[in-house]
Specification:
The chain is of the alpha/beta class and 366 residues long. The protein has 14 helices and 12 strands. The chain has helices at residues 5-8, 19-26, 45-52, 67-77, 90-101, 117-125, 141-147, 170-179, 204-210, 238-244, 255-265, 268-292, 312-321, 345-365, and strands spanning 32-33, 84-87, 107-112, 128-133, 152-158, 185-189, 214-219, 232-236, 303-307, 324-325, 327-328, 337-341. It is globular. The protein binds pyridoxal-5'-phosphate (PLP).
Length: 366
């Protein structure tokens, strides 16, 4: 068959291990999954109620325009309805954007040490990938600007960045956007935006008003706790949405996801509660790292990347055997680190005590 040859060397996305797999393999009763930056508190009770009572016919297609969700978000974000595009998770929006713009002969600029799907999709589309290493976990925006040339079509920014948790501040992004050529699309992935507590964080919606080459991606998978229902959205000038929308599959966001997301938008108290719990959770990890002299990136997300100064796979394996699934830094480009999702207070204390055991066992051997 005449496949795109780049597909033949690609691996499918490697998700974290599932709870059932790990239970079975290690004979464990309780597993805590802190690997995929999901919300340890689940979703809003209001969204949960909508899901419990959902009674639409499963034989009918969902609303392909997501009209009610569109309206709810346009009110809460104060943007025009035509400025919104919906995806089967923000993953699908990354795919749609890539499909719309990337092809052999052009190029796309991104950080290395960032969310894997920008590169993955660019490989499939056959575009040249220009990767710019992070500096101290942060996007090196000046070098990213230098990497742009006449053939550049997309620049990907992730803020807070997965896996480092480091954000781009208002001054830095404002300068950057003023220098990017107007015919280059800037994708600003804000999957973790609702967790941010830094005071000099920018207002992405104000930036969208000002820059007609910017699209902001957000998701219901993280703080809204609806990852399994797969709802993501993009916010941009309507000229961008108009071109992208035909590249979107017709019924891409399922009906249950749309209904739950509407209820979730209306429960900002839940979002606030999760943000505050996450800030406290981060402090638990910071204390641990400082006591143990481990370096880490201060995070604005719901995860933390910690340097154990040894093979990240070894730490991952040790913790998994004790019932905690985290993410090894090895496939993320940080081979001596692990990335841990911030859980509930108890879950954090639990994984921290196992990390202490790991360090003690390591010290005893040396
Ligand atoms: C930075 C970033 N962007 C996008 C996604 C995809 O999220 P979803 O497709 O669930 O909306 C993730 C998921 O982990 C992420 O970390």
């Amino acid at each position: 068959m005449k496949w795109k040859k780049q597909l033949l060397s690609l691996k499918a996305y490697q998700p974290g291990r599932t709870i059932n797999e790990v239970k079975k393999q290690y004979g464990l009763e309780e597993i805590v999954k802190l690997a995929s930056n999901e919300n340890p508190f689940g979703c809003s009770p209001k969204a949960a109620e909508v899901i419990r009572n959902f009674s639409n016919s499963y034989a009918l297609y969902p609303d392909g325009y997501a009209a009610e969700l569109r309206e709810a978000l346009s009110v809460s974000l104060q943007v025009r309805q035509e400025q919104l595009i919906f995806g089967d998770g923000s993953d699908e929006l990354i795919q749609i954007i890539s499909r719309a713009l990337l092809h052999p002969g052009n190029n796309t600029v991104m950080a290395t040490g960032t969310f894997s799907q920008y590169k993955h999709n660019a490989i499939i589309e056959g575009s040249e990938i220009r990767e710019v290493p992070l500096i101290d976990g942060a996007h090196d925006l000046n070098s990213m600007l230098d990497a742009i040339d006449d053939n550049t079509v997309i620049v990907w920014l992730c803020s807070p960045n997965n896996p480092t948790g480091v954000y781009i501040n208002n001054q830095a992004i404002t300068d950057f956007l003023s220098k990017v050529p107007k015919d280059v699309l800037v994708v600003l992935d804000e999957a973790y935006k609702e967790y941010v507590h830094a005071e000099d964080y920018y207002d992405a919606l104000a930036l969208v008003k000002e820059h007609k080459n910017l699209i902001v991606l957000r998701t219901f998978s993280k703080i809204y706790g609806l990852a399994s229902l797969r709802v993501g959205y993009g916010i941009a000038d309507e000229t961008i949405v108009k071109v992208l929308d035909p590249a979107r599959p017709p019924f891409n966001v399922n009906a249950l996801g749309q209904a739950a997301a509407i209820a979730a938008v209306h429960d900002q108290e839940f979002v606030k509660h999760c943000r505050e719990a996450n800030i406290n959770g981060l402090q638990q990890f910071y204390r641990f790292c400082e006591e143990q002299n481990l370096s880490y990136f201060p995070s604005q997300g719901n995860f933390i990347l910690i340097d154990f100064n040894c093979d990240g796979n070894e730490v991952f394996q040790f913790l998994m055997e004790k019932g905690y699934i985290v993410r090894s830094g090895v496939p993320l480009g940080f081979p001596t680190y692990i990335r841990v999702t911030v859980g509930s207070k108890e879950q954090n204390a639990g994984v921290i005590s196992k990390m202490e055991e790991f360090l003690a066992a390591k010290a005893a051997l040396s």
